[in-house]
Design brief:
nine-stranded mixed sheet; disordered C terminus; 32% helix; two-stranded antiparallel ribbon; alpha+beta; 6 helices
């Protein structure tokens, strides 16, 4: 189950999923990949961690984040638009409530490979469940080409490239991509992964109201 949380809904959850995903991001992005990004007290963050952001956080039984990603609307300044616009050459850079940016996709590398695979699959289904609930038609973002193939395409979600491969400041190959959000895509991903149950958890009080 994945916590779907924002600053405005964090009080609905036990523990602190937003804090936990910042810690996981530090482990994955700063410690392992050596990105040159802001940190504080072993947490990674940037200017897009604000009240407009939503987080998908996969936590273990102890409440520790083992997988996470961030979703952010493109109707306000966002990372692909402000930092990586040179990667988008095939279309106009999106600026609409129907297109959101996915970023900071992290999974704990210390876990066994089968566990990591399951978390990845649940996170991408979480993208689709969130997107359909919010009326989103596409999710865009900056990706490593290899990660994109292993995370999305391998699990049945095709990617449209928005430009050519470039290099990040750290020397990694990066590319801008777009993922179509639709019920047909969700059906395809569920069939590919074998995960048919809903994966998103919106908070204890929300779940109690739904059950009433």
């Amino acid at each position: 189950m994945i916590d779907c949380v924002s600053i405005s809904t964090s009080h609905l959850f036990t523990g602190n999923p937003i804090y936990e995903q910042h810690r996981l991001r530090h482990d994955c992005i700063v410690e392992r990949q050596r990105w040159k990004v802001p940190t504080v007290r072993n947490m990674e963050y940037d200017q897009y961690d604000n009240p407009a952001a939503w987080y998908l956080v996969w936590r273990d039984e102890a409440g520790k984040a083992r997988g996470s990603s961030r979703l952010y609307p493109t109707d306000r300044p966002y990372m692909l638009q402000e930092i990586f616009p040179h990667l988008v050459t095939n279309i106009a850079i999106p600026k609409t409530t129907e297109v959101w940016e996915g970023s900071r996709f992290c999974v704990d590398e210390k876990l066994p490979i089968e566990k990591r695979r399951r978390i990845v699959q649940e996170l991408i289904i979480g993208y689709l469940e969130f997107g359909l609930a919010q009326g989103i038609t596409r999710i865009v973002g900056v990706m490593y080409p290899a990660y994109c193939r292993n995370i999305f395409m391998r699990n049945g979600w095709d990617v449209e490239w928005l430009g050519d491969v470039s290099r990040s400041e750290e020397g990694y190959k990066i590319i801008a991509g777009s993922l179509t959000v639709s019920r047909a895509v969700l059906k395809k991903v569920r069939e590919k992964t074998g995960i048919y149950e809903n994966v998103l958890h919106h908070g204890e009080q929300t779940e109690m109201r739904r059950a009433a």
